[in-house]
Amino acid sequence: MGEVGVHRPSPKAAACQGSLGRSPGKNRFSWELLASICALALFAFFSAGCQSYHGETLPTASGQQPGLLAPGDTIRVSFTTAPELNQSQKIEPDGRVSLPLVGAVAAAGKTTGQLQAELTQLYKAQLQNSDVVVTLENIAIPVVVSGEVQKPGKIVFERPATVLEAIMEAGGFSVYGDPKHISVIRQVGGVQHTQIIDLTPVLHGVPTKVMYVNRGDVIYVRPRFISF
């Protein structure tokens, strides 16, 4: 006499049930593994963010050292015995000036004294007295200030200027500007470098090392609610 009321699942169904019975454990393991991976990823992200926050110490662009002539500067060339040749010249983007009798002469990357000595030698074949005096009339330091400032845009200084001065020339910080996160971006040798500085100490009267801008620097003031 056969068994009544007893249901025997087929081997395939039994295998499925066994699989389903084990799935919660597997799912839990999968979620724990995923959570661990996410935690590691977030840690790496914020660690990288902290490192990028400090940034790097910006290199000085070639020809941008204090005392060296650069494109955009205006020099005065005076001749002791030939005043009719006296003139002011703006250094071209290629770093040269065009002078009477000798033509184009490289000026960028030299001091006024070095250029003066070179011109004295060049004019020896042209003038009986080749004494030449080179003076710097004004310098040109173009920078771009963007982000959370009142008047973002390009500013051209005719004297050495600091990052704080550049921001003030742009109207100062906007209501959202964060003085703790100032990105100074500089291109040197075809590579962009970024240094992030904190201006809050100097704004609160704490003596702080001055950071001067270089020609072509981009200064970006970050919003307060963004954290990198």
Poorly predicted runs: 1-6, 12-22, 39-54
Helix count, DSSP H or I runs of 4 or more residues: 4
Major sheet attributes: 5 strands, mixed
CATH topology type of the domain at 55-63 and 140-223: Outer membrane lipoprotein wza fold like
CATH-scheme architecture of the domain at 55-63 and 140-223: Roll
Global geometry: elongated
Q: Report the order of strands and helices.
A: HEEEEHEEEHEEHE
* Physical arrangement of strands within the biggest beta sheet: 7-6-10-8-9
Average pLDDT taken over every residue: 79
Which class do the helix and strand fractions yield? alpha+beta
Q: How many β-strand runs?
A: 10
The CATH fourth-level homologous superfamily of the domain at 55-63 and 140-223: Outer membrane lipoprotein wza domain like
CATH class category label of the domain at 55-63 and 140-223: Alpha Beta
**Terminus-to-terminus distance:** 78 Å
Strand residue percentage: 25-35%
* Rg value: 34 Å
User: Helicity range of the residues?
Assistant: 25-40%
What would you say this structure looks like, in words?
This protein has helices spanning 11-54, 112-122, 163-169, 200-203, and strands spanning 74-79, 87-90, 96-99, 103-106, 132-138, 141-147, 153-157, 177-188, 191-197, 218-223. By secondary structure, the chain is α+β, with helices and mostly antiparallel strands. Among the domains are: 55-63 and 140-223, Outer membrane lipoprotein wza domain like (Outer membrane lipoprotein wza fold like, Roll), CATH 3.10.560; 74-138, wza like fold (2-Layer Sandwich). The strands form 3 sheets. A 5-stranded mixed beta sheet has the order 7-6-10-8-9, sandwiched between helices. A 3-stranded antiparallel beta sheet has the order 2-1-5. A two-stranded antiparallel sheet has the order 3-4. Mean pLDDT is 79; it is low at 1-6, 12-22 and 39-54.
